[in-house]
What does this fold into?
Amino acid sequence: MLADIQERMIYRAQIFLRDEVGNYVPSSTDVDYPKKLSSCDELIKNDSIFSSQSALWYPPLEKALQCLSSLYRCIESTTFSGLAQEAVSLCADNIILASKAVSRISGVVDGQLFLIKHLLILREQIAPFDAECTIEVKELDFSHIRGHMRRIFAGELSLFTLSHDNAFFVLASEGRPQVLESTVNSKKELEKKLKIGCEAFIMTVTKSTVEPMLRFITKVTAFEISEGDGKTLSTSAFGSEKRVAEIIRSVNSSLETSFIDTINSLKMYVRAKETQALLLKPIFSNIVEAHVQFFNILLQEYSREVLKGYGMLDVDELNTLFQRI
It folds into this structure.
């Protein structure tokens, strides 16, 4: 009787995970970020209350974790590991789809932060479960048959010969599908997806902040290849004093407005100071590197005093700005 109950429970859990996690279609309220975070900010003041934390979670994440919590002590560890693998995989994939909806509604940065926030929660919440979250996958591989078919169509194998080169004999003896065994670890896949999401966020913020400088550096590279020593950078359209001043003003404006807004959004989505620092450090480094490259290129044509007059920030000034953030 116990075995029958467990079997039925596992079956119902799989149906639940498929319908409520994998195939969940988010409503407009589910992806209404960052408004949802702002309106529910009072609920997360007490982090010890589970309901306060989960009130801001994307529904499939909450349902997947509740399902795993209910099953953890009720079924064998090997069976739970398989269910956990399925739950984590379905949940992560649905979060990725929801992040795209958030991007369409609120912008790319909010979509990326939504993804990072919920994948971090998923990784944190499954850590206490003593499960590998792995399954063995067996697949039939028919790829080698294509080689035999090409030989047949090329005339290398005949359908009528009585030798070992007979096409039917070759297909019967060597054309059987091969069984490929592999292990799928949803925890490792989750780490990969989280890493990709973090790298995309870092590049988005970097590009939106110093994109004018990056475009300038790219143009300079192409200019040096095409023009050689026949023309100076200051006489080109993109390297004139007016254009250089516009680039510096544009980047400084981004650092004072949109960049600060993005940092505030990061702090709203991701509360942990350590995680914030891990995301901000490479962003700061990229911004400093772009300034250094831009500054070194311009020093070939303009003096430091001229560039400072345009508002060009040096490394120390950038570090001071980042420390205030």
Q: What stands out?
A: The radius of gyration is 28 Å. The chain has three domains: 2-132, 136-185, 189-324. The CA atoms of residues 136 and 183 lie 5 Å apart. DSSP finds 14 helices and two strands in the chain.
